[in-house]
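To fix ideas, we reproduce below a protein record of this kind.
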Amino acid sequence: MTKKTALVAAATSGLGFAIGRHLVAHDYAVSICGSDAERVTSAVSGIGTGVDAAVHGQVCDLRKRADIEAWVDAAANHFGERFDALVVNTGGPKPGTFRDLSDSDWADAIDLVLMSAIRLARAAKRHLKEGSGVVFMTSSAVRQPIGHLVSSTVLRTGVGALAKILATEWAPGVRVNHVYPGRIGTERVHTLDEGQARAQGVTVEEIAARSQAGIPLGRYGNPEEFATAVGFLLSDAASYVSGATLAVDGGMLKGM
């Protein structure tokens, strides 16, 4: 059987890596990207561990249009066909409140979070098959602002809006959905918890406990749980799901 093919951005660790592993386990050929060559090589090996995997990886600075276009074209050439799935993802920008961030911090965040999504969507569109699925990944900040992640809050909200717009513009041939995580146990979340612990003069464990106390399921999620939700939206089982926003947050956000 011919494998389905997928592009997964920023997949050398965290949620992107988990999604890559999930898709490979479900018989996709996957191309990933990351900004560090050693981490890309390691991730390609890790994503394909223990399965008959077809995994391609390339160094790509998602802040740069040329890098994005080069990665997408290289992946298409490598697999020799168009893509069934696209996961639009990126690492997080510099944390901080509004007063903490300079013009250069904002410029970097705009390129990393918002422009990378726009450029990746533009570059990948001509390679997407009829009936393909796209998932844009953002953050729970799109529904509830996070004061110490102000640039992420502002810009990921824009990415969520882009996903909703493209669900109409790219229909009926391409389904587009938007998924945001709550507190998932990734390196990024641990680093943010460490930063909050230093700022407040408490332990990382206390910060984590406070966060978990506000989650009805009582814990941080794990990356595999998030990846399973994304995999569903990309699959044929979600063939009539488009323009949706899915929270994978353990019930953390209480708004309707």
